[in-house]
């Protein structure tokens, strides 16, 4: 993948080959709701506390078994058969195995690159977690804690992880790029995400000082990370940065095309977030919001950067039959629907509709990565999970909700 600049500003999105991709979430970075069985016998809600409640032998056995079975060569073949061309792989800050008690996973990423080479896929490496978390979410490694940006030594550690990833994979043909850090929780998003209430900290003392990341700090960090990455990353490999949940912050960022090459803006847009912003919980409401809010937003920002929607899906409250209050599940104390509220055809019409409108909106930019490729939650036999199968692209394809023959 090559992105060139023709003047002093970043190149338009049209130069970037259109990405049709899927995330391999919950493989190397765990999310309890996507594989509850992995947390059996513990009260842990996140990856930070899991090894504190299991013996080292049991913890290692669970992790290694999970990693070896969750994603295999066959999955890369399946993804290619759906007409997709890329995967976004979330990786943890301990990927190199230097932050005990956590177990490194660089060998798994090596395998992924070999599989990608074979099946003609590209890989976006996404650094998904940071020590003491960049967002306070369960998927940020430790729930209810967001202090990484306040810890200079840990900020430097993250930069060294990025450098090592660039050194190891920078010349691999299948590398699309490296994403600096996933979903930093900023001053824009902090109150809406309601981190301290939605993700209560296990250790109040450890969470002391938790708070949002300022945009001025984040922009400085991104520039530093760009240069640290680019020292080892050829210009035909992208440096990707997340918008911190405020896409409008970035119009005047990294505009010098002589200094910044091949930079991509990643934004995450979910219907559950649209609901939190007041979008009516109806099929018509979703369609209107996507077409009149998301689509013009992507189109406008694509004049400044190639824009990818690095996370999105078909999940919505109508499909669940209950208001999920921004995607909260039975694990958050929410009570899911006891029975389906839609017939199979009504559900098919709903999801096909939101798939069509979202794919059209993302086409205003440079592509997307669906979240997620799969989950291991049994949404049929486990009470409270009706509608959550929409997070699983394989189940969406199987039920004719997601078109495999789109652009």
UniProtKB/TrEMBL annotation:
Domain of life of the source: Bacteria
Gene Ontology CC terms, in alphabetical order: cell surface; extracellular region
One Pfam match: Cellulase
GO biological process, one term: glucan catabolic process
GO molecular function, one term: beta-glucosidase activity
Domain Glycoside hydrolase family as annotated: residue spans: 68-318
Keywords of this entry: Glycosidase, Hydrolase
Family, similarity comment: Belongs to the glycosyl hydrolase 5 (cellulase A) family.
UniProt-recorded name of the protein: Beta-glucosidase
Record organism: Bifidobacterium tissieri
